[in-house]
Amino acid sequence: xxxxxxxxxxxxxxxxxxxxxxxxxxxxxxxxxxxxxxxxxxxxxxxxxxxxxxxxxxxxxxxxxxxxxxxxxxxxxxxxxxxxxxxxxxxxxxxxxxxxxxxxxxxxxxxxxxxxxxxxxxxxxxxxxxxxxxxxxxxxxxxxxxxxxxxxxxxxxxxxxxxxxxxxxxxxxxxxxxxxxxxxxxxxxxxxxxxxxxxxxxxxxxxxxxxxxxxxxxxxxxxxxxxxxxxxxxxxxxxxxxxxxxxxxxxxxxxxxxxxxxxxxxxxxxxxxxxxxxxxxxxxxxxxxxxxxxxxxxxxxxxxxxxxxxxxxxxxxxxxxxxxxxxx
Length: 328
Ligand SMILES: NC(=O)C1=CN([C@@H]2O[C@H](COP(=O)(O)OP(=O)(O)OC[C@H]3O[C@@H](n4cnc5c(N)ncnc54)[C@H](O)[C@@H]3O)[C@@H](O)[C@H]2O)C=CC1
Ligand SMILES: O=C(CO)COP(=O)(O)O
Known about the structure:
The protein has helices spanning about 10-20, 35-40, 65-70, 80-90, 115-120, 135-140, 155-165, 180-200, 205-225, 235-245, 250-260, 265-270, 280-295, 300-310, 315-320; strands spanning about 1-5, 25-30, 60, 75, 100, 130, 145-150, 170-175. By secondary structure, it is of the alpha/beta class. It has an eight-stranded mixed beta sheet with strand order 3-2-1-4-5-6-7-8, sandwiched between helices. Strand 7 (about 145-150), helix 7 and strand 8 (about 170-175) form a beta-alpha-beta unit. The structure holds 1,4-dihydronicotinamide adenine dinucleotide and 1,3-dihydroxyacetonephosphate (13P). 1,4-dihydronicotinamide adenine dinucleotide binds near residues 48, 103, 136 and 276.
């Protein structure tokens, strides 16, 4: 099958390699011709996935029409901030019967919607599945074993998408709960910032475990209020992704948090970064959603204050520890 991967970042590259290794004919779209030229010449995505050779059969283009031509499968994997603009560029050229799947982990900055909702709305109500789970591009691209979930209400489409990606090193489960899968994948990035801040302040493993556990409770609380199933947050796209993002040396969100915890300012940390740390954007949307639902998300609230209001991380930790006593 012809596959179009919209997004030339680390995750787009790793998933393009997975599809190519399964025998699909893959074209990756990226916005910057300079990066694409470098990938074509060096056979390596030096900017977004350095150190991993990419197979020569994958094509790289900045033309939406060329990328989408005759595609049976379309994967959207652009950072949430650019998602709307990029989908609009593809709107007229996506083949009508193609399967569409979104692997972006974030929330829309304007509407706070999850990404498959944004895509479906811009694509006139078309079905869009979600793909999410504990998967670092650096590992999946090297063929290390990993598992994730494909979710959505259209069983046939979800099964076909699973079959396109699944192989002996990349195991995919299916789920009907796209809301749970997407909220789990987006909101854990904020808790990964908190885990990194904890690392940067050298506050230890006990505090980190507490942040992760209480973080998952608040993610599930908000997700459930927004229509997700609570049990989904115990799965790969909930607890699984929270574990890997809060503990992995590959996590950008955790790394940004670590530098904030050491006292650097957000502008210094983000200044030189070409890759994305979605949690920096998601924390604002998550707090707005939580407030609109009357839901408490104390860890997420403190992360937003540190990131966007420059609150001292030590003060934030004191405020979390000083909250009134309650029942677990
Ligand atoms: N890297 C990973 O291991 C994983 C990433 N994800 C998610 O995948 C999504 C994409 O992230 P990555 O592939 O890691 O990206 P990345 O951080 O490796 O690269 C940044 C991407 O943003 C694109 N970009 C920059 N400015 C742009 C603009 N103005 N318009 C359109 N695109 C622009 C770049 O071309 C590049 O594709 C994110 O939502 C991320 O959370 C999900 C699972 C794993
Ligand atoms: O979602 C991810 C792993 O599952 C990637 O996390 P980072 O964006 O923090 O690197």
